[in-house]
Amino acid sequence: MSEAAGKRSFSRRPRAERMEQIEAAARDVFSRNGFAAASISEIAAGAGVVEGTIYKYYENKRDLLLTVLQRWYESMIADYVDQLAGVAGLRNRLRFVIWRHLKSIKDNPDLCRLFYAEVRGSDDYYESTLYRLNREYTNVLMRILRDGMAAGELRPDLSIALVRDMIFGGIEHHVATFLARRGELDVERAAEQLTDMVMAGIVQPPPAPASLGLEAAVRRLERVAERLDPPARGEQQDTGPC
Amino acid sequence: MSEAAGKRSFSRRPRAERMEQIEAAARDVFSRNGFAAASISEIAAGAGVVEGTIYKYYENKRDLLLTVLQRWYESMIADYVDQLAGVAGLRNRLRFVIWRHLKSIKDNPDLCRLFYAEVRGSDDYYESTLYRLNREYTNVLMRILRDGMAAGELRPDLSIALVRDMIFGGIEHHVATFLARRGELDVERAAEQLTDMVMAGIVQPPPAPASLGLEAAVRRLERVAERLDPPARGEQQDTGPC
Amino acid sequence: MSEAAGKRSFSRRPRAERMEQIEAAARDVFSRNGFAAASISEIAAGAGVVEGTIYKYYENKRDLLLTVLQRWYESMIADYVDQLAGVAGLRNRLRFVIWRHLKSIKDNPDLCRLFYAEVRGSDDYYESTLYRLNREYTNVLMRILRDGMAAGELRPDLSIALVRDMIFGGIEHHVATFLARRGELDVERAAEQLTDMVMAGIVQPPPAPASLGLEAAVRRLERVAERLDPPARGEQQDTGPC
Amino acid sequence: MSEAAGKRSFSRRPRAERMEQIEAAARDVFSRNGFAAASISEIAAGAGVVEGTIYKYYENKRDLLLTVLQRWYESMIADYVDQLAGVAGLRNRLRFVIWRHLKSIKDNPDLCRLFYAEVRGSDDYYESTLYRLNREYTNVLMRILRDGMAAGELRPDLSIALVRDMIFGGIEHHVATFLARRGELDVERAAEQLTDMVMAGIVQPPPAPASLGLEAAVRRLERVAERLDPPARGEQQDTGPC
DNA sequence: TATGAATGAGCCTTCATTCAT
DNA sequence: GATGAATGAAGGCTCATTCAT
């Protein structure tokens, strides 16, 4: 029902307007109360229609919720690829994706909460348009990763999907307290740190022990060479005692 | 279990035993139907008591859910620290934490789903015992990270909390399809990959400093060789000493 | 009334009509069982609607009760003032008020019992419309009393409110056994006696001032007679002149 | 059960003590919450016993309420007649009864409210001990009234029962706002006014028109007598001109 | 005598959804 | 297309009372 957006184009305008009214009201009420506590009658009142009218446009309450979230995702995707095109370099692109995701959450915590709490994890999600949109959305990151891997910038043994999980999962976990209205969210800082961590990992790169052994070996060779031919040119090395 | 069909047939039991019966039944029913669709009467029937009895032990339906999940968390925490004590080395410990978390999810996907879908994200969560247990649980990882940082094994500029978010968030995102009964979960593989990714990041390390040193050393050796025997032949190899 | 047994058989009715149906059924059920023992489902069945319909018109069970009693009060007030306008003289008006109140109780003992037992004395009563109606109702008496006082017919030192309490309280106490189905109620007799008692009090009036004056006058006449004809006979009587 | 207060005298002490504890707790809880909202478990907790124990002493919750109110009535009756014996004169005695009743209400508004709201008007009341006590209590007034009537102090045509209704009903109506915690209660003032009103009624005793006519007639007769025999002795009268 | 675990019957209420107008 | 009255199922929860221990 909601998918069939406008069959007869000559009556499309009022229909689209009605739907916008309803969806705006629904977004408000759902955001404020959550799905279960939201009532169709309140949404109807907010949209200036009666309950029955809503069922002319949406199959049921849940369809309305999904539609509201769909609109959100559509708006998020709209200029995503375009904007990304202006960002060059693996790191920058990765950071952009992370930053943008954090920003979307910060800008619409209520919708985000709805999505996390009411939609994702439910059985019908994987058959929904919302799921397809979500895949489209996350695929942007996947492509960046694949490109980076093809370019040799990323380790070839990685599971791209797992990297995606780590990024979106990490973000989601990070914003949990913010979404629960129990903490702030510093988008810039989190984006920077997450990008950094994802890129470079967490371990302190130790002075590579392997090359130390090689170094030592080379030095011994050099000493040998020096005995044969004492240093006289420009390069300095620490030499052992005689 | 459902033999007690007689009228007013008591079966006075110690408090703990009754609670175990009820909680077992509740775990089943909640797991099967989710919170909303679970009915107290079904739980009561499963436990072999009447509905009223349940309210002697639990404030309300939600309290019962939280208690069931509490018991799960308690059991997860029970031997956690002990087991971890047997694991040495930052990487191993990190991998153990990740592996164990994945394993808990794989072993109890239903409870896990309940926790994600019904509890976390609700308003009362942050005041619940469950929240305290969850903090206790995640603190194990936090301590490992802090120790690793103190030992200089981890980069000192990290946000420990963000590392935790990335790990648990990454796991959660990764298991989503499994929890939705739409995919398998390879605990070992995921643990290994996640540990690796978290530790080392995703970028292809640029030719390590060691190899840089080797290059330099080789050049020096070439120069030595040139002194002994000016270049005349085509191929060069490192030869042993006399 | 209960013909509508078909599945999903609507019988769309104007709002007022539906409410009348429901209130009639409610009045019956409440009267028969009292508030607590009355069940919404029984009321709904009696009204030929389903339970949910009742909640379209009334907030809750109690609101329904209050509405039922409101209607009663409204009907009592409807022609009250008009009828009273046809009654002249303080005593007659007072008697009419008392008589009418007794009559209302006799005509609707069930509603009256409901009002006394379930509403008056509860916390929400003083905020209810019913309370306002009750004040309106009793104010009719108050005005009569005030008028009587202004006209000098009533003692000026009276507390009007206390007179009202004595009248309505007296009536209420008097009808208690009748309401408890343990006695009869003779409206005419009670109205007459109460009016009389309220008006004149209970004490035996000492020989009225008028008779005192008569006594004195007779004595004076005797003295006049003595002057004309000094006492010589035994018995004295008042004799005419000449 | 509660009526059989102490069969075996050797275990009476502890039994009586227990009952006192329970009744004290019950009085508190009933007073605070009313009958319906009072829970046996709260009463039990307040008395330091378990629910089951209460049923050893009282048949059921209502029996406990009636017992609590019985104790109150017993205490009210205890010294009633004695005190009244010290009051002489119909008016004084009547005022004492009214005053004492008002005072009892003021001292125990909660118990009074319970009695009015929960007991009186219920079906079992007329069979209860409480009813017998109440009759005993009101009979004190009835006797006063009968005595007053026999002594000629009260009008012989009164319905004693109706006078009682007017007094107790008037009091009850008057204290209603106080019991609803919405007004104060001035015992002395109310007692005085009510006594006065009951005794003397509300009408302004008019200068008896009948005796005025007689007076005038007598005066004419006196003027006749004066013409026959002009005034010369000590008694003064207001005489007309001429 | 005291305990206190267990009983068990019901009712109010909600609200998404339908469909006659 | 819009209306909005009516549906109707479903379930959490309470608490006085009982009775085995």
TrEMBL record, chains A, B, C, D:
Gene3D superfamilies: Homeodomain-like (1.10.10.60), Tetracycline Repressor, domain 2 (1.10.357.10). The keyword DNA-binding applies. Residues 16-76 form the HTH tetR-type domain. Keywords: DNA-binding, Transcription, Transcription regulation. GO terms for molecular function: DNA-binding transcription factor activity; transcription cis-regulatory region binding. The keyword Transcription regulation applies. Residues 39-58 bind DNA. It comes from the Bacteria. InterPro entries: Homeodomain-like_sf (IPR009057), HTH-type_TetR-like_transc_reg (IPR050109), HTH_TetR (IPR001647), Tet_transcr_reg_TetR-rel_C_sf (IPR036271), Tscrpt_reg_YsiA_C (IPR013570). PANTHER family: HTH-TYPE TRANSCRIPTIONAL REGULATOR BETI (PTHR30055:SF234), HTH-TYPE TRANSCRIPTIONAL REGULATOR RUTR (PTHR30055). This is Transcriptional regulator, TetR family. It comes from Tistlia consotensis USBA 355.
